Amino acid sequence: MSTTGATVLDIPIPSSFKVKVHRSICLELHRLIDRILHVILAIESARPNSALAIQTLCSLHFTLAKAESVIKHCSECSKLYLAITSHKILSRCQKIRNAFELYLTQIQNAVPIPLAAKITAILHDLRDAEFSMDFAEDEAGKVVLSFLERNYPDSASMEKEELEAIQIATSRLEIKSQFSLLLEKATLKRQLEEVNETNLKEKELLEYLLYLLIKYGRSICKFQKESLSLKHECHDQSFEQELVVDETICESQRQMIR
Q1: What is the pTM of this model?
Q2: Could you report the per-residue pLDDT of 15-28, keeping only the tens digit for each?
Q3: What InterPro entries does the database record attribute to this sequence (predicted)?
Q4: Of all helices (H) and strands (E), which one includes residue 57?
Q5: What is the C-alpha to C-alpha distance for residues 140 and 94, in angstroms, rounded to an integer?
Q6: For the stretch 167-179, what's the b/e string if a residue is b when 16 or more beta carbons lie within 10 angstroms of its beta carbon?
Q7: pLDDT at position 224, please?
Q8: Does residue 139 contact residue 192 with C-beta atoms inside 8 Å?
Q9: Are the C-beta atoms of 101 and 127 separated by less than 8 Å?
Q10: Of 131, 143, 141, which is closest to residue 83 (Cα–Cα)?
Q11: Are 82 and 133 in contact (CB under 8 A)?
């Protein structure tokens, strides 16, 4: 417990390989959390005695916990779910950044000048911080959302588009093997167990994503294998063409030497 009455949070940050989706966002959050944690410790050591400063410190700790929860969320939830709900993640990050900026600005005048200068540097970092989606993750989310928003004339058309959407989305999110597919289904099942019963929209979305993976699981794996095979074929053809070109060049050089 600090002398100001605010408890220093020990925020464990999942390593980047554990973050399933939105890694760049989580790394940016992690960087900001690390800097702000250090300055909070320095602020508490300076023992600001105003009621506003103490209240602001508490608010900073609360905001740190929110930032940590975003990273935890991205390390524990389904990849498909995270891609589809990316707009919520971005919105949360913007709100967290704004809160950090507000509280650090409020406390800046209540600390010694050297510490105020450090806060100024962090404020610059906060204003320059960018939270952006990776292209593949963004595409995966858009593909599924686009499918969900369309109207289809018949079930056959819907199933065709449904399969195509889930194949593209899983490909972009690196759900390409039976193991990764099983892991994604297990994650969705766990989320369903934990979701609040009153949150019907989230429950329906999770159930639908799980339904898609169960229904098209074999097709997804087959699609990924065919895509991989096609890539190898293209690579082999390219390699063969390079060999032909190289042989032609060598033959031309031999004739020139003669």
Answers
A1: 0.78
A2: 444 778 899 999 99
A3: Adaptor_Cbl_N_dom_sf
A4: helix 51-76
A5: 22
A6: bbbbbbbebbeee
A7: 63
A8: no
A9: yes
A10: 141
A11: no
